[in-house]
Amino acid sequence: MELSCKVDYACIALMQLAIRHGQGQPISVNEIAHSQNIPIRYLDQVMGMLRRAGIIHSQRGAKGGYHLAQEPWQIKIIDVVIALNGNDYRESPNNYQTTPEKAVILDMREMARKGAADVLSNHTLEDLVRKCEEKKHSDVMFYI
């Protein structure tokens, strides 16, 4: 199971929104794109998908942009994946099993899919932000 670049960009943008959540000011796509080196047009499409899924809200106008629709601890990463890739992610492949070898491979793929779904279901946007902050602090080097 691979997560697409679209999911990566969405999670990065959502972490930016989570960091500033509760400050009352929405964040523009341009600001996120420039600070995270993400193509603006692509990020704009991703943000539209997240908005349609109800994960974020948009605000129009000169001081417009996006903000989270829920608290960061309420947004599960699996919901982000489903918003961008559709609900097919949770469904088992309905493949025709003609040989024991194919059946074994399909069983293994199903276990991997369920394992990935469990990990994504048990992690929230707040978890990602916390891990990012921990990484920033662990990367700081002190020299004497």
UniProtKB/TrEMBL annotation:
Pfam entry (one): Rrf2
Record-linked SUPFAM superfamilies: Winged helix' DNA-binding domain (SSF46785)
InterPro entries hit by this protein: TR_Rrf2-type_CS (IPR030489), Tscrpt_reg_Rrf2 (IPR000944), WH-like_DNA-bd_sf (IPR036388), WH_DNA-bd_sf (IPR036390)
Keywords: DNA-binding
Bilayer-spanning residue ranges: none
Annotated signal sequence range: none
PANTHER family in the cross-refs: HTH-TYPE TRANSCRIPTIONAL REGULATOR ISCR, WINGED HELIX-TURN-HELIX TRANSCRIPTIONAL REGULATOR, RRF2 FAMILY
The protein, known as: Rrf2 family transcriptional regulator
Species in which this protein is naturally found: Pseudanabaena mucicola FACHB-723
